[in-house]
Specification:
This protein is an alpha/beta fold. It has helices spanning 17-27, 46-49, 51-59, 79-83, 109-124, 146-160, 175-197, 220-235; strands at 5-12, 30-39, 68-75, 128-130, 165-167, 209-210, 213-214. The protein has a single domain, classed as HUPs (Rossmann fold).
C-alpha cells in the first residue's frame, strides 16, 4: 500500500479488466476517487452492467470504501457509431483492416472520452484523470499511445486552463503485469473479483466462463486477456 495523496482523482471506468485495475490503483493512492463510464452504442454494452458489482466489491476491500466517491455515466448516444460503423459498435465480423488496425478501432474514442472526463473533472474539482490505455500489450489503437496521451494532456490543460494530470498506470505493463498489479493491490480477493465481474469480450459474451473470466475466447480482447492470464499464472 502506498502513502495516500490528498489529491482527488477521476477514473475512466468501463467495467473491464484494465479500468478495474486502474480503479484499484487510484483507490490505493488517493483520498477521494470518482468514476466515469461512457455509453456510446458499444456492441458490448454489457460491460456497463459490470461496473456496479465491481465498485461494490472494491468498496469492501481494505478501507477503499471510504475513498470511493460518486459514479458518473456519460451518455454519448450513438454519436461515435453514427460517424461510421466499426465492429465495436455494430454486429460485423471482427477482422484486420487494410491499414493493419482491427476494425474494433473506433476513431477518436479515447480522445472524446478524455475530453468529456476533463470537463467533468473541471466541474468536480478533480485534478487527476486515470485511464487504462496501454501501448505495451494492446490491439494497436493509436489513441492508446503514450505520445497521444501526453499531447492530449497539453491540449486539455490549455483549452480548459487547468493543470490536469492524465495518469496511465498500465501504459508500460503487458496483460500479465496487469494481473500482477491487481494481485499486489488487493490480493486474491481483487483478482477473483476482476475475473468474475469485469468484462472484456468485444462480442459481449458473458455466458461462457473461463479461468480468466467470461468471454467468447476468440475476439482480440479475449485473446489478450487470456494470454496475459496464462503468462501471469506460469510466472507466479
Amino acid at each position: 500500500m502506498t502513502d495516500r495523496s490528498p489529491d482527488a482523482a477521476l477514473v475512466l471506468f468501463s467495467g473491464g479488466q484494465d479500468s478495474a485495475t486502474c480503479l484499484a490503483w487510484a483507490l490505493d493512492r488517493y483520498a477521494h476517487v470518482e468514476t466515469a463510464g461512457f455509453a456510446y452504442g458499444q456492441r458490448h454494452a454489457v460491460e456497463l452492467e459490470c461496473r456496479a458489482p465491481l465498485r461494490d466489491g472494491m468498496a469492501a476491500i481494505a478501507d477503499w470504501g471510504s475513498r470511493l466517491g460518486p459514479d458518473h455515466i456519460i451518455d454519448l448516444g450513438l454519436g461515435l457509431a453514427a460517424i461510421g460503423q466499426t465492429a465495436m459498435t455494430s454486429e460485423v465480423e471482427i477482422r484486420l483492416g487494410a491499414d493493419g488496425l482491427p476494425n474494433t478501432f473506433v476513431p477518436g474514442r479515447n480522445l472524446v472520452f478524455l475530453t468529456y472526463a476533463a470537463a467533468l473533472a473541471y466541474r468536480r474539482g478533480l485534478r487527476r484523470i486515470v485511464t487504462g490505455v496501454c501501448e505495451t500489450d494492446y490491439s494497436g489503437y493509436p489513441d492508446c499511445r503514450d505520445d497521444t496521451i501526453k499531447a492530449m494532456q497539453l491540449a486539455l490543460n490549455l483549452g480548459m486552463d487547468r493543470r490536469f494530470v492524465l495518469e496511465t498506470p498500465l501504459m508500460w505493463r503487458d496483460k500479465a503485469a496487469t494481473w500482477g498489479l491487481a494481485q499486489s493491490l488487493g490480493g486474491d480477493r481483487l483478482v477473483e473479483l476482476i475475473v468474475a465481474q469485469s468484462h472484456s469480450c468485444y462480442r459481449g459474451d458473458r455466458t461462457t466462463m473461463h479461468s480468466w473470466g467470461a468471454g467468447c475466447a476468440a475476439c482480440p480482447a479475449c485473446d489478450l486477456r487470456a494470454m496475459g492470464w496464462k503468462r501471469w499464472k506460469n510466472c507466479a
